# Entry
Amino acid sequence: MAVITIIGTNYVGAVYAAAFADLGNQVYGVDIDERKVQLLSEGISPIYEPGLDELVTRNLKAGRLRFTTCYDEAVPVSEFVFICVGTPSSFSGEADMRAVRSAAEMIGKTIRGHTIIINKSTMPIGSGDLVTSIINQVKSPDATFAVVSNPEFLREGSAVQDVFNPSRIVLGAEDREAAERVAELYSALNAPVLITDRRTAEMIKYASNAILATRISFINEIAQICEQYQADVKVVAQGMGLDPRIGPLFLDAGIGFGGSCFPKDVKALSYMAQEAGCHPQLLHAVLEINQDQRRRFVHKLQTMVGDLHQRPIAIWGLSFKQDTDDIRESPAIDVVRMLIQRGAIPRCYDPAAMDNAREVVPEAEYFDDPYEAVRGTDALLVLTPWNEFKQADLGRVADLMRQPVLLDGRNLYDPADVRRLGFRYAGVGR
Ligand SMILES: NC(=O)c1ccc[n+]([C@@H]2O[C@H](COP(=O)([O-])OP(=O)(O)OC[C@H]3O[C@@H](n4cnc5c(N)ncnc54)[C@H](O)[C@@H]3O)[C@@H](O)[C@H]2O)c1
Ligand SMILES: O=c1ccn([C@@H]2O[C@H](COP(=O)(O)OP(=O)(O)O[C@H]3O[C@H](CO)[C@@H](O)[C@H](O)[C@H]3O)[C@@H](O)[C@H]2O)c(=O)[nH]1
# Structure
């Protein structure tokens, strides 16, 4: 049993707080957002993440988990303090480290005895040194500490599952004993552990996200070429994926990657590269192809239905991927914005992300029922691959629409099946 504090309790921190408690530890979750702390203390997850409510509730009841806004209540009694605050993109693409700096300062002021501080947020290379120096400036003279980098690889929508079944635990430290003590926290999960220096660990995170984003932009570029030569990118990806050197994952063509990680982390890596005098051509291309994908999709809609002014267009899916309410950098939200700019009337449905979407795109119309959203529309755009869209009653959809046009931004449907129902259909790269 260890006493652990998690700083920042949202997509990453809330899941970790509950998971470490579930493994038998005493855990404090600290967040500056009072509403979030209040909800979590009542066993209600502030985000849509399958399995999280149950995990939080079970551990609150067992008395192993507590949420607070007060560092003083948690940090002084903790042996381990995880930093899980956000590191969003700033205007230049550089990671915005304000939350990390302020968390480090608060940790520095409240640590007692010996504490291991773990950087779990995705932070630029060199951030371990930054956190160390901030803490050194404010800590009490008798407090000692070590900073370990421990990047996180969970995916939203399957975060609970991913945290209990990690592909690897990466630890970076100048103090090997500190890294080994952090490794013990994960010992029950039987995952491979890689211990290295801090900067290498920080780079492993950026390089991992960058290659996954690269695969997506790669297949999206292949999809563009497939469209010109009447090949089917879905089958191309399948055929490529059978080669064990290539593998089948992260080769789904579509409207591009979004979310709070790939876009910001590729930008941050590219920024770091440029700052160091490198020329990150591949990273630039990955981002450029990703933006193009959205524009090309809207252009395809225009070629199929003509001028969009005053045209009602149905949208299925707003979150950046399935099984989450997260709309950060969602390509679907970008597409909706482009439609509005062109005078269209987007009629949107999403099983989890509509409250978030309403806040950023209040001009669109929202429906609680996917079939209501398509009523009287001139096209249906499927933008997020939620399960409930995969076997939807497309016959009924065709009947409800003013004209049956289906643009499948995630290649969910079999083109021949959809055309048989009377739709004019376009996927991506097929
Ligand atoms: N979301 C993911 O799937 C994922 C996966 C792996 C790594 N990461 C990385 O982990 C980090 C956290 O990601 P997230 O999506 O959970 O971020 P988030 O922005 O959704 O949540 C951050 C939380 O930290 C809180 N916070 C901000 N400043 C604070 C402070 N000074 N003290 C205490 N709490 C504070 C915020 O109120 C918020 O609840 C980021 O660096 C991200 O890149 C995210
Ligand atoms: O073949 C694919 C796979 C994914 N996507 C899109 O890529 C984005 C990211 O998807 P995914 O990686 O599943 O979700 P995230 O929750 O953003 O997780 C990524 O980002 C996290 C934050 O850094 C990392 O921890 C994870 O390992 C990494 O997969 C989404 O918009 C997906 O729709 C595609 O377009 N095609």
Observations:
- The chain has two domains: 3-195, 262-426.
- The radius of gyration is 23 Å.
- The chain has a mean pLDDT of 98.
